[in-house]
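INFO batch 0412 | record 1 of 1 | parsing
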Amino acid sequence: MSTADMLRAEGALEARREILLELLVIKFGQVDPAVRTRIESASLEQVTAWMHRIVVVATVAEVFES
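INFO prediction complete | emitting tokens
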């Protein structure tokens, strides 16, 4: 993977993390710092899974259940 590809992938991951955080705020209100930290260290695959889950769950905790 080239440096440019790695930078694009990192940019895509950061964008998804920001979108997930925004969705959490819209649906549930203030985001707990521990949740923010968890999102900031998650992989692209995990963030994507959480983004899909947020649509159908009723609580923040359910977003992050495995």
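INFO post-check: The CA atoms of residues 25 and 31 lie 6 Å apart.
INFO record closed
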